[in-house]
Amino acid sequence: MLTILRQNIWRVAKRDFSRAWAHTSSVHSVNEQDVEHFTKILSSPSSVISTLSPSFSSSSDLENFNADWMGKYKGHATTVLKPRTTEEVSKILKYCWERQIHVVPQGGNTGLVGGSVPIQDELVISLSNLSKVRSFDPVSGILVADAGCVLESLSEHIAPHGFIMPLDLGAKGSCQIGGNVATNAGGLRLLRYGSLHGTVLGLEVVLPDGTVLDQLSTMRKDNTGYDLKQLFIGSEGTIGIITGVSILTPPAPKSTNNVVLALPSFSNVIPVFKATRQHLSEVLSAFEYFDRTAYDLALKHGHAAPFPAEEVEGAECYVLLETSGGKKEHDDEKINTLLETLLSDEDSLILTGTLSQSPSQFASLWAIREGLTEAVSKEGKAYKYDISVPVSSFAEVVGTVRARCEEKGLISRGLVKHVIGYGHVGDGNLHLNVIASEYNDEVAQTLEPFVYEVVASHRGSISAEHGIGVMKTHALKYSKDAISRQWMRKIKDIFDSKGIMNPGKVLE
Ligand SMILES: Cc1cc2nc3c(=O)[nH]c(=O)nc-3n(C[C@H](O)[C@H](O)[C@H](O)COP(=O)(O)OP(=O)(O)OC[C@H]3O[C@@H](n4cnc5c(N)ncnc54)[C@H](O)[C@@H]3O)c2cc1C
């Protein structure tokens, strides 16, 4: 493990981060005096974890903050601060601004593009102690919460009032609402409830110089000029630290169903999607896709098979669809009619399907799809490409990348184990995963810029939902033209002229 991490530190270090560090003529690493100062301004001694502190006990305390979820990126921070209030965040940033100390905001550290960990020895500011629900209005469904609240705990908070969070993702047990907003996370409910650009009503943000920008509106309508909060949604900690989030939550559906369908061929996905939209219309809430290899990996890594193996022998891919509605009989009738149509079709579009019959079966069908990210990480070291391309080209893109790996001998030499695709059909978002036996330069060079060129040839996006982080700064050009990149740089400079916020992330 250590060798693999070392290789990757080296690989990342080979990239040129001079632009990211160029703004600060004299960047300062955190020193003993800084740690002493932080200890004074933070209310609890446990809010400071630092190798430079006399009370520091074990370097394993820092490891989790320095390594990302995939074990692909690793930093060398000596110090992590865990403020408890917005005021504490403000004091920290004011000091870092004056001293020119680089900082990395960190939420649940579940990001998949290396944005939440330092590149060098930046100061990590963890939001995990900012974890209070500030208010919830059970009439409007408007929730105001500290940025460090874990997504799942917010779902549990509002469930007794009959509401759900408008977003859901496999990392819900660890990711934080502030991290979700900072990455503009998509997830499994986007098809139904839209993106965070629509559901987030307001934000409280501490700007790089420590100023608190209070945009924590709880109004649904506010047409008073530039909508500043939108700039922070998806900004990945590069222009400020989100400390509070106001979000519109929808009423929990009274009735839900889900079904997994096995398809003989990828070419059936679009006709099945079309039929599904026609039949289910307003009750359709998710339409997810996973190819055969992804499904097999989910089963291999512990998920229960929804079908007997012989029934799905010839399946090339699967879809999971979900309905969420207000009346069970009405929704059941719709889904049954859909299934009858799909099965009775002369050239049957599906091989078979399993419709959940109980809450536990509903959960276990979802677990197959939600567990894919984890199954992939158990199988090997994943090169993850989270791309937007036309749905009709999902299989072609996966096939093209697999052919490239074959042509370069990566598969025959065991360097690449699988090339798989899964994702959100309803949103045109494909998760292309190349699972390697280890992170390795030859694999990386085979895949990049090749994958980005394939995406650009479809006029797609190199990042549909995971963001740019450190992984894709060099590839931003494939999705944003020069003028757009110049304006992004100008926006970054307006907020963070000293370049202290998350250097080397999003922009080179
Ligand atoms: C199993 C699994 C499944 C996933 N499924 C999905 C999915 O379906 N859809 C999806 O979009 N993503 C998915 N992800 C990726 C990840 O969970 C999301 O990006 C998530 O929103 C990150 O939240 P976090 O709190 O963990 O943020 P972190 O990983 O800690 O940080 C992510 C970025 O946001 C910044 N940041 C964090 N908190 C703040 C803050 N308060 N203020 C300013 N900047 C901040 C960080 O600096 C970093 O750049 C998945 C990840 C895993 C491990």
UniProtKB/TrEMBL annotation:
Domain named FAD-binding PCMH-type is located at 73-252
For this entry, the protein name equals FAD-binding domain-containing protein
Per the UniProt entry, what species is this protein from, by scientific name?
Answer: Sistotremastrum niveocremeum HHB9708
The UniProt family comment states: Belongs to the FAD-binding oxidoreductase/transferase type 4 family.
Cofactor dependence is on: FAD
Recorded GO MF terms: D-lactate dehydrogenase (cytochrome) activity; FAD binding
Please give the catalytic activity noted in the UniProt record: (R)-lactate + 2 Fe(III)-[cytochrome c] = 2 Fe(II)-[cytochrome c] + pyruvate + 2 H(+)
Q: Which UniProt keywords apply?
A: FAD, Flavoprotein, Oxidoreductase
Q: Which GO cellular component terms, listed alphabetically, does the Swiss-Prot or TrEMBL entry include?
A: mitochondrion
